[in-house]
Amino acid sequence: MKFLTPKNIQTVVIILVVSGLLFLALSGYLTPIFNLSLNPLISFQSWLSVRYLSARDFFTTPREITQLQEQNTVLESQVTQLQTQLIVMEERLGEAQVCFALLDFGRTNPQYEYVAATVIGREISPFLQYIIIDKGSEDGIRYGMPVVTQQGLVGRVDAVIAGAARVKLITDSTSVVNVRLQSAEVEVQLLGSLTGDVSLDMIPLDETIEAGDVVLTSGLGGNYPPNIFIGQVLSTQRRENALFQTASVQPIVDFSSINAVLIVTNFEAVDISPLIPEE
Amino acid sequence: MPHIVSGLSLLVLYILQTTIFSQTPLLSGTTDLLLLFLAAWSLQPQVKNSWVWALIFGSLVSIVSAMPFFTPLITYVGVVGISKLLQSKVWRTPIFAMFIVTMIGTIFQHVVYVVSLQVTGAPISWGESIDMVILPSVLLNLIFALPIYAIASDLSGRVYPLEEEL
After folding, report:
1. Cα–chain-centroid distance for residue B133?
2. Closest Cα in chain A, distance from residue B77 (Å)
3. Distance, in angstroms, between A72 CA and closest chain B CA?
4. Which residue range forms the structural domain that includes residue A70?
5. For the residues of A115-179, what is the DSSP string, one character each?
6. Does the distance separating the beta carbons of B122 and A158 come in below 8 Å?
7. Are both A104 and A121 inside the same structural domain?
8. Most exposed residue of A118, A173, B2, B34, measured as fewest CB within 10 angstroms of its CB?
């Protein structure tokens, strides 16, 4: 019985106690005791840690704030520069899109020669619908030349100086354009108005006009080339005892936001006013 | 100095008018900055040269505009005339005078425009003109009358004392 020495017994007891404690701990029986003993420790540790971090921030943060402020200033200036570049690029993209669209129109209508111009102003009087463009007689612009966009007809040149020209829009109240309806093959007149709306007049009563019918220039009268798109019929109006019916037209061109136009330079408007008998 | 200030101010307002304000209508009516500035400038007691500027810019606008018979020139000179007339009658309350000149001047201008266009054969009716152009223009001009008057008053206050000191 050499094994049952006091030293060995002590070792066995310690192993049993530790094993028991481990078993109790793993099985969760010792959790309340752990909580009771560890909570004050954790609280103290948290308290100390917060104080330490506060003290560390107190000594180190001022330098970081200065650095951050410097970095922020640099980044803000970079953001400003990038925003400026973005605006410039967006403007160039917009100009390029307009140029491509105008070019596309020129390609689809190769029989005409064009001069592109930018709209630089509008008529001061609210009773008239005119635009001012940045191309004039120095660029080959002459009175009466038709003006179009990639979408359709805009108007005609009304007055020219060396570096600019005034264009009368088809929406002007004094504007009359001879047009034809693609579906009905009927030739009528397109009139402007004070409010900028356009309408068809002189439509024979026996013609059936429907909403959506396409309106094109007819070329009659010699003021505009034929087959330039103008818009679509919105609705028709028939009045009792009227000789003709009328129709509202939705122009394809948004006249409130024209930025660039094409002037058809190889079309010569024919002045037929001497041929019209005086009343 | 006052001539340069008057001329530059009207030139800037003319550019703003053709590029921005003519493109921002209320119904079909628009603000007329030149009319407002000429009215406000004429109402300043120390300003004596407003007739000259009405003639110069009236001629300029008449050349650029498609309005017939130099009607912008007639209307701007008429507005300055109304301002000078009211300046002596309503001298105690110049802002009130500015509103009166704006209202009467705008109506006078548009009546002259409609008559001249009707004479040339434009199919413009009075009813539509009043509803869609004249009344909205009067409203817009009345809205902008106060800031334009403040600018004109400030400019004349800055320019003319210097002139007197010299």
Report:
1. 16
2. 16
3. 37
4. 32-108
5. EEEEEEEE-SSTT--EEEES--GGGT--TT-EEE-SSSEEEEEEEE-SS-EEEEETTSTT-EEEE
6. no
7. no
8. A118
Integer Cα distance of B149 and A175 in angstroms: 37
Of A120, A124, A128, the CB nearest to B17: A124
Residues A196, A83, single domain; the answer is no
Between chains, do A124 and B64 touch, taking CB under 8 Å as contact?
Answer: yes
- Do A65 and A131 reside in the same domain of the chain? no
In this structure, the number of other CB atoms found within 10 A of the CB of residue A151 comes to: 16
**Least CB–CB distance from A128: residue in B17, B32, B66:** B66
Provide the number of structural domains found in chain A. Answer: 2
How distant, in Å, are the alpha carbons of A1, A48, A162, B62, B82 from that of B109?
132, 83, 30, 13, 12
Residue where one domain finishes, among candidates A86, A108, A130: A108
Q: Are residues A124 and A104 in the same domain?
A: no
- pTM > 0.80: no
pLDDT in tens, A121-142: 888 889 999 999 988 888 999 9
Single out the residue in A89, A108, A127 at which a domain terminates: A108
Residues A180 and A252 in one domain: yes
- What DSSP character marks residue A111? T
Residue A97 lies in a domain: yes
- Here the ipTM equals 0.86
Report if residue A17 sits inside a domain: no
B129–A195 C-beta distance less than 8 A: no
Residue A43 lies in a domain: yes
Residue B161: pLDDT band (50, 70, 90) is: low
Instruction: Give the Å distances, CA to CA, from B85 to B32, B79, B144.
Output: 21, 10, 22
Parent domain of B40? 2-165
Residues 6+ apart with CB under 8 A from A114: A102, A106, A262, A263, A264, A265
Asked if the Cβ–Cβ distance from B133 to A122 is below 8 Å, we say: no
Using CA coordinates, name the residue in chain B closest to A164. B64
In chain A, which residue's Cα lies nearest the Cα of B19? Answer: A121
**Could you identify the residue written with the tokens 């640099």?**
A74
Please report the pLDDT score of residue A249 as a whole number: 92
What are A25's two structure tokens? 């701990």
3-state secondary structure B60-127: HHHHHCCCCCCHHHHHHHHHHHHHHHHHHHCCCCHHHHHHHHHHHHHHHHHHHHHHHHHHCCCCCCHH
Q: How many domains does chain B have?
A: 1
Contact A165, A135 (CB under 8 A): yes
Looking at residue A189, which CATH number applies to its domain?
2.40.10.340
